[in-house]
Amino acid sequence: MTDRQPPVRDPHLEEVAQWHPIEGTPTKKKVAIGCSVGATIETYDFIGFGIAAALYFNTAFFPADDPLSGTLLSFATLGIGFAVRPLGGIIGGYLGDRIGRKPVLVGSLLLMGIATVLIGCLPTYQQVGAWAGVLLVVVRVVQGLAFGAEWGGAILMCFEHAPWRKKGLYTGITQAGFPVGLLLANLAFLVSVPLGGSWAWRVPFLLSAVLIVVGIVIRLKVEESPEFEELKEEGELSKNPLLEVLRDDWRNILRAFCLRITETAGYAVSVTFMLSYVAAEELADRSVTLTATMIAAAIGIFATTYWGALTDRVGRRPVYLVGTALHLLWGIPLFLLVNTGVAVAVVIAFVISYAVLQNSLAGVQGAWFSELFAAKTRTTGASLAYQMSAVVSGFTPLITTALYAGYGWIGPALLFSGYGLLGLVAALLTRETWGPAERAEVAALERSVRAQPPGDVPVPRSGADARRRTADSTTD
């Protein structure tokens, strides 16, 4: 498994299984929890900005005399953070493939925490004028860089520690950290509403300091990826993973980019923009929309893990095909449901949009994207594809607001369905990495290894030793 989860028969799988056990490393659960906790904290920080942008920043950091322009500027600032995420993914991916996954995990979390706490300390437009918006952009850029580096390190670390037949489940656990972060962010903003004034949005950002300390302590205890250590020991680390993956695997980058857009840009329409839309149309008050998002996020914690685990049984692509098809069909019904203004209907709309549609895609991505790339360029390739789509999704609320201003709610609804169509086509064009043949092969290997009497075959120190031993026995 030095290169990837084996799609075809590898004559050395049994040897590889002895340095990367079929059942995963002894610390696989600790790694999954550590990566999930970090993802939770970084999502709390990053998503918190989106909530504040939709509810507060249009008047706090920009002129309040033109609400629509303030909303557009607020969403533009939100988009900037997404725009720099590919750069963060490139930097984090490059470092992850060159010096290790763990340093990237710790560094990205620390950087995100510092930027988020600073947001809670920024002066408003009423205090320093246009400089308020400039300062907000600066810290948002830092947030984007940190978040861009986060995903690849966390997912790849978990993926490379996980059992061979449970990659979807374990990466789904890490992905579930994102709805946990979403839940905590919405809870923080809901609880802070009674504070009023600027404290209603400052306190949630300042609270991030506590979460960061907890996250750093946990991540420092996570062990490095066994596959990275193997590559390092064999001297097979890529000298320039970015150049190599762009040269050899650009097609997979493009496919994963399109797959990801449906999930992340769909979220930007159905959650981020929807918060602003509901408020502007006075369909429900802030407590209803925040509560709806919290319920959806709470369900999403379990839904994301479930969707990931489901891919271990039926494959990655079937689940993604269903999720993208539902995106295609959900655009108009979503807005029709919200437009009723009934609180229960609003909650149902958010739950379906997030726990069913978004989570069904997010739960698959960790395993599927990782399996598309070789181990020595895996962090760079998966991170680049994952974060490039953030440019599109980051500016989607801005685009959606403009469409809404020109065409009413039908514009955002059709845009949402269009993202679903793009993902559906991409899923059809992307190879299955965990189909019946792959699952049957690993199952056969499991039976072979388990049937072997203990001590019959000495356990090699590494995959390199295993291959040397096989070569020696062949020569003899």
UniProtKB/TrEMBL annotation:
Give the keywords, sorted.
Cell membrane, Membrane, Transmembrane, Transmembrane helix, Transport
SUPFAM superfamilies tied to this protein = MFS general substrate transporter (SSF103473)
Keyword Thylakoid listed: no
- Residue ranges of coiled coil: none
Q: What is the membrane topology listed in the Swiss-Prot or TrEMBL record? A: Multi-pass membrane protein
Q: List the subcellular locations.
A: Cell membrane
Map out region (Disordered) in residue numbers. 448-476
Provide GO CC annotations from the record: plasma membrane
Domain of life, per the record? Bacteria
Chief location of this protein within or outside the cell: membrane
Q: What protein name does the entry list?
A: Predicted arabinose efflux permease, MFS family
* Species of the source: Geodermatophilus sabuli
Q: What is the lineage of its organism?
A: Bacteria, Bacillati, Actinomycetota, Actinomycetes, Geodermatophilales
